[in-house]
Design goal:
By secondary structure, the protein is of the alpha+beta class. Helix content is about 20%, strand content about 35%. It folds into 3 domains: about 100 residues, no CATH class; about 150 residues, no CATH class; about 140 residues, Glutaredoxin, CATH 3.40.30. The strands form 4 sheets. The chain has a 7-stranded antiparallel beta sheet, with no helix packed on it. A 7-stranded mixed beta sheet has the order 18-17-21-20-19-22-23. Strands 3-4-5-6-7 form a 5-stranded antiparallel beta sheet. A hairpin with a 3-residue loop joins strand 8 and strand 9.
Length: about 425
């Protein structure tokens, strides 16, 4: 009986430890914006054959590097230890590689003639082009740096069979850098493998984009790179300055929580993050602290303003951090307007919209639409001179954020819920 009790105690302790951990699951879907090479491979395609008489060539693209890795191992170009590393990172199933080798390589026939490009994808991987659809594009189409995007289906194996739809981008162009000297023209191409979904932490959500940058088809914890938006943004561009690229070894700050990538499904449709700690410095200036002023560019006048928060009257000051890109912010604007109308003798509101320059017109429209008739001190995150100083100094990571301040400049409330402010004011 004592032995059984000890076993029960062990499993009870293990379960408690698991319960104490926090995991965030993100369900993703394919990013359908396929007219960009970002988030995938884009490179000169290898020449298979050239016919200079009719100005045509056949090029090749390999979907999955694992065949080449295993061949290198068999030729003793890489060690057993290196192979073990690749098996973990790329889910390299050496016993089943042959099951999808036929579909690993895509052949494309391209011919340039009389102002037209003739393109045939070997979409059924038969090795011939007579049984595949033929596409035509004007030369001007590619001259404008547009991608020709073809949806392709690839079957592969990892303990069971999978089928994957890939967006293959193609651009033949004589003006592009030439890698293969025997080519009659340059051809660049590659697949774009991105999925995206929402990470919800507290009241905020963050758009996550995870992608495969190398030649392989399956995701794993170690092969997917990802970027995350600011709180409540609806979209962002991969590889742009404000959005770092993370890997499995990186920790990231979401509000005051520190997260790490815990797992990724084979198809990239489920991502799990694990909370590994909290960073007190990211909680920002908290209630009880004295705030001297807020400053920035007045949205209406374009003039710089430094607004002191110590007042001679008994009014509160409510700082409202929001953005035109933020769904919850917009949803709360009618409620904030009602609050302002009811409490205009008690509270002076100062808006601090956190924006990109391209969103300023939308900001103006929202201010007019919801009659936000109070000062708006804009915080531009991509302006070379008008920096979002207040957002940074107060470590505003959640939008909207409301900060209620008394007439001595003391912070009374810092919250994403306007009801918390109403309780104090009333």
């Amino acid at each position: 009986m004592r032995f059984i009790f000890l076993i029960f105690l062990f499993f009870s302790i293990t379960a408690t430890a698991q319960i104490g951990k926090t995991f965030y699951t993100v369900i993703t879907q394919k990013d359908t914006q396929v007219n960009s090479g970002l988030g995938g491979t884009m490179e000169p395609l290898r020449i298979v054959s050239v016919n200079k008489e009719d100005n045509s060539q056949v090029v090749r693209y390999s979907f999955d590097m694992r065949h080449k890795l295993f061949e290198d191992y068999q030729k003793k170009y890489i060690s057993t230890d290196s192979l073990a590393h690749f098996q973990r990172k790329y889910l390299l199933d050496t016993a089943n590689l042959h099951k999808w080798k036929k579909e690993n390589e895509l052949l494309v026939y391209i011919q340039k003639t009389k102002g037209k490009w003739k393109i045939i994808f070997d979409a059924n991987y038969s090795g011939i082009f007579s049984d595949d659809p033929v596409y035509f594009r004007d030369t001007s189409f590619f001259a404008d740096r547009k991608w020709f995007t073809q949806s392709l289906k690839v079957n592969f194996w990892n303990e069971k069979a999978f089928a994957k739809e890939l967006a293959f981008n193609l651009i033949p162009d004589a003006a592009l850098p030439k890698k293969y000297t025997d080519a009659v023209f340059n051809t660049w191409g590659g697949t774009r493998k991105i999925t995206q979904g929402r990470l919800v932490v507290g009241l905020d959500s963050f758009l996550v984009k995870i992608y495969l940058s190398d030649h392989h088809l399956m995701y794993s914890k170690y092969s997917g790179n990802f970027s995350i938006s600011n709180a409540n943004e609806n979209d962002f561009q991969l590889f742009s300055t404000p959005y770092p690229v993370y890997s499995s070894k990186d920790s990231l700050y979401i509000g005051n929580e520190i997260l790490m990538l815990n797992s990724v499904s084979v198809m990239g449709d489920t991502i799990v993050f694990k909370k590994v700690g909290e960073n007190e410095t990211f909680k920002g200036v908290q209630p009880g602290a004295i705030l001297k002023s807020v400053y920035g560019t007045n949205f209406s006048t374009g003039a710089f303003e430094d607004i002191g928060l110590k007042r001679t009257d008994s009014k509160y000051t409510l700082l409202h951090f929001w953005g035109s890109w933020c769904g919850p912010c917009i949803a709360n604007l009618p409620k904030l307007k009602v609050f302002a109308d009811i409490n205009n003798q008690k509270v002076e509101i100062v808006g601090l919209p956190f924006e990109q320059q391209q969103d300023v017109a939308k900001t103006k429209k929202l201010i007019q639409q919801y009659q936000l008739n109070w000062k708006q001190i804009i915080q531009l995150r991509d302006h070379p001179f008008q920096k979002p100083d207040m957002v940074k100094q107060l470590a505003i990571a959640h939008f909207p954020t409301y900060m209620l301040i008394d007439n001595n400049g003391r912070i009374l409330v810092r919250s994403s819920n306007l009801d918390d402010v109403t309780l104090i004011v009333n």
